[in-house]
Design brief:
alpha+beta, 3 domains, eleven-stranded antiparallel beta sheet, two-stranded parallel sheet, 18 helices, extended
Length: about 525
């Protein structure tokens, strides 16, 4: 459907004079195409005029809502202004794209920041106040919440920026916004910085991307601007067949001790600290990337059976450290070392009875078109691939399948990683696997061995029969059967090693064999027919 029709069918009648005049600007673009005098100047002038109308109106409405009394009715007004902003911005985006396609002058680079900026973030504090008006029935049910280990089912989603407010408003009717310390936080989110470790071979990345049993992530995390108090964390993945839960463990450390600890010059009286230290030393790990984002948390005060986090304004930073530092100082971060993620990350964490039976409101959210499910999404893996794709033998599945695909990542990294653009694309074309994790249990390896043994027994039987026939003087028939037994053995061994390799690489296909059994069956049938004819 053409956008001008979408706009006419969805605009808010009361605010119709505040929208972009899309049809008029299309006519001006036709003037540009036809080289009419001053057409380019007229387009830019009118575009700026419509944006000023939009911007002034949006800011007025947001200020009005911010100054309004705290009532549930505010949510409907927030949704209304959210719809207006998204529809109008889409009009600006499309008309600028149409202009740039038909003009030698490109406007999008100068307008990009305006179209990305989200003025609705100014309403977040108001949303928190409104959320307190809702009765949260389980508020007084107390469940022991661990502080060092976290075990629960987690489901991850992407949220387009235009849907962030709608997702928040859906959640706060059922879960309040949780602020860790209201005396410290004057906003509804918490800044989180995480520095991740890996080695030159990206060993942790390659194990984690396929969810290998026992694979680890090592990171240093701090909250807000307080990087004096740090948490060193290890996340360990366990497969279902181990009957162990994947786990996150951490210990706190002061920043003035962290370098000595990372260099293995500081021994702490803590088993976890020593295990992580050995992991860093033995695998030659060092700071490689950092993630920075604002986290909005939703949770009942004394109950974490349902916990939801929404990470907004996510960006990835490539670390460039030396022996005297463990993260890159902000003044030394180049713009080429920063990549901005286009989605917010929603994570729904369930435990106890809710794991198999989440409440209806969560089911409705998960089944809505507001969010995009991305199981196994990893900020660590995405950021590593963003900056070190030329070292990655496996591609995260969500990059291959997402509509923005590899291009967005290439744009952010190509100049740094490879001065020869063709070199990168050659490298990308040669890349082998999409990392779509497949769960492999030990019994699968045993099944492969049993299949080989069954083929081997068949080969032994055919070979033994051939030798027996040779013994009674039928040499040609006997030799033919011995040759077939050798072929069966070679075939069985080849298939065994092929499947074993696929299992170890956690590939999702390559296990079936439609042709081998058919060909071998035909060969054996022909051999028996030949034997019967020869023995007459």
């Amino acid at each position: 459907m053409l956008f001008d029709k979408i706009l006419s069918e969805n605009l808010d009648e009361e605010w119709k004079n505040k929208y972009i005049n899309y049809n008029y600007l299309k006519e001006v673009i036709n003037d540009i195409i036809n080289n009419r005098p001053n057409a380019e100047k007229n387009f830019v002038k009118k575009l700026e005029k419509f944006w000023r109308i939009h911007d002034i109106f949006v800011n007025q409405e947001i200020k009005r809502l911010t100054d309004s009394d705290i009532t549930k009715e505010l949510l409907a007004e927030m949704i209304r202004i959210n719809d207006f902003i998204n529809l109008n911005k889409e009009g600006f985006r499309k008309i600028i794209k149409k202009h740039d396609k038909n003009s030698e002058y490109k406007l999008y680079p100068a307008w990009k920041w305006k179209l990305i900026y989200n003025p609705l973030s100014n309403l977040y504090q108001k949303i928190k106040d409104v959320s307190k008006l809702y009765p949260h029935n389980d508020e007084n049910i107390v469940i022991d919440v661990g502080t060092t280990e976290f075990k629960r089912k987690s489901i991850k989603f992407w949220v387009e920026k235009k849907n962030i407010l709608l997702v928040i408003l859906h959640i706060i009717e059922h879960l309040p916004i949780n602020i860790y310390d209201e005396d410290i936080n004057d906003h509804i989110y918490q800044y989180i910085n995480s520095v991740y470790f890996d080695n030159d071979d990206l060993e942790l990345y390659h194990k984690r991307i396929v969810k290998e049993e026992g694979s680890n992530i090592v990171r240093i995390r701090w909250y807000e601007e307080d990087n004096n108090n740090l948490y060193v964390e290890r996340k360990t993945h366990h497969e279902d067949w181990t009957q162990l839960d994947s786990i996150k463990e951490r210990f706190s450390i002061e920043s003035n001790k962290i370098l000595s600890y990372l260099k293995n010059n500081l021994i702490l009286e803590d088993n976890l600290a020593n295990e992580i230290s050995d992991l860093i030393k033995n695998n030659k790990l060092y700071p490689i990337i950092r993630t920075v984002y604002k986290r909005i948390a939703f949770q009942l005060k004394n109950n974490d059976s349902i916990r939801i986090s929404l990470d907004i304004d996510l960006k990835f930073i490539r670390e460039n450290t030396n022996y005297t530092e463990w993260f890159t100082d902000v003044d030394n971060i180049e713009e080429s070392d920063i990549s901005y993620f286009k989605y917010a990350i929603l994570e729904i964490k369930l435990r106890d009875n809710y794991i198999e039976n989440p409440p209806d409101w969560i089911k409705n959210l998960m089944n809505s078109n507001l969010i995009i499910q991305k199981d196994n999404f990893s900020k660590f893996a995405h950021s590593v691939f963003t900056f070190y794709n030329y070292k990655c033998s496996k591609i995260p599945y969500w990059i291959e399948n997402d509509d923005f695909s590899i291009r967005n990542i290439v744009d952010a990294t190509i100049d740094v990683n490879n001065n020869n653009n063709n070199g990168f694309f050659n490298c990308y074309q040669k890349r082998k696997d999409i990392a779509n994790p497949v769960r492999i249990e030990p019994k699968t390896f045993f099944a492969n061995e049993r299949t080989f043994i069954q083929w081997f027994n068949c080969a032994i039987f055919i070979g033994s029969a051939g030798l027996a026939i040779i013994g009674i003087g039928k040499e040609i028939v006997g030799i033919l059967l011995v040759v077939i037994s050798i072929l069966v053995t070679i075939y069985a061994l080849t298939i065994y090693y092929k499947r074993d390799r696929n299992l170890r690489l956690r590939r999702g296909d390559g296990y079936s064999d439609l042709h081998g059994p058919f060909i071998l069956s035909i060969v054996i049938i022909i051999a028996f027919i030949f034997s019967a004819i020869y023995n007459k």
